[in-house]
């Protein structure tokens, strides 16, 4: 099973950038699709972006397209979420999670498809 730990959150002014990291331990990290989600106060957890294990193909939520991107460094067992042009509405706790099925070709944006959640990292964007 994959264990995930997020880091890199913090406070930033609108228009700024942050890069979140999702460090993995456990076996065969490179075999799993990894997703990023976020949860704002009083709101449901929502999909942000995901990256496929095989070719690093990514999908993003419409709300972050053109501003966020995901990458992975399998040698470092780490997935990154680069967030640019941040807006106050991006304020949330950000989580990474793994699709527990290895070698899956389909990249999912469904929260229920993911497991092995990290503890989350807070991102606060001020206006």
Structure description:
The chain has 127 residues and is mainly β. The protein is 0% helix and 45% strand. The protein is built from no helices and ten strands. It has strands spanning 3-7, 10-13, 18-25, 34-39, 46-51, 58-60, 68-73, 78-83, 92-98, 121-126. The strands form two sheets. Strands 2-10-9-4-5-6 form a six-stranded mixed β-sheet, with no helix packed on it. Strands 1-3-8-7 form a four-stranded antiparallel β-sheet, with no helix packed on it. β4 (34-39) and β5 form a beta hairpin. The N and C termini lie far apart (40 Å). 34% of the residues are buried. The model has no long low-confidence stretch (mean pLDDT 94).
Major beta sheet, strand line-up? 2-10-9-4-5-6
Radius of gyration from the alpha-carbon trace, in angstroms: 13 Å
CA-based shape? globular
Order of helices and strands: EEEEEEEEEE
Please give the largest β-sheet. Answer: 6 strands, mixed
Summarize model confidence as the mean pLDDT. Answer: 94
Helix content: under 10%
Structural class: mainly beta
Into which percentage range does the β-strand content fall?
A: 35-45%
Q: What's the N-to-C terminus distance?
A: 40 Å
Summed up, the helix count is 0
Low-confidence stretches: none
Q: Please count the beta strands (DSSP E, at least 2 residues each).
A: 10
């Amino acid at each position: 099973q994959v264990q995930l730990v997020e880091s890199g959150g913090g406070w930033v002014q609108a228009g700024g950038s942050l890069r979140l990291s999702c460090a993995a331990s456990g076996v065969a990290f490179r075999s799993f699709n990894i997703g990023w989600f976020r949860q704002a106060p009083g709101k449901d957890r929502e999909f942000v972006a995901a990256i496929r294990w095989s070719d690093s193909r990514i999908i993003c939520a419409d709300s972050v397209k053109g501003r966020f991107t995901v990458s992975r460094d399998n040698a470092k067992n780490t997935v990154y979420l680069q967030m640019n042009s941040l807006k106050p509405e991006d304020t949330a706790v950000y989580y990474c999670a793994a699709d527990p099925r290895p070698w899956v070709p389909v990249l999912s944006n469904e929260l229920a498809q993911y497991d092995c959640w990290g503890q989350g990292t807070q991102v606060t964007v001020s206006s």
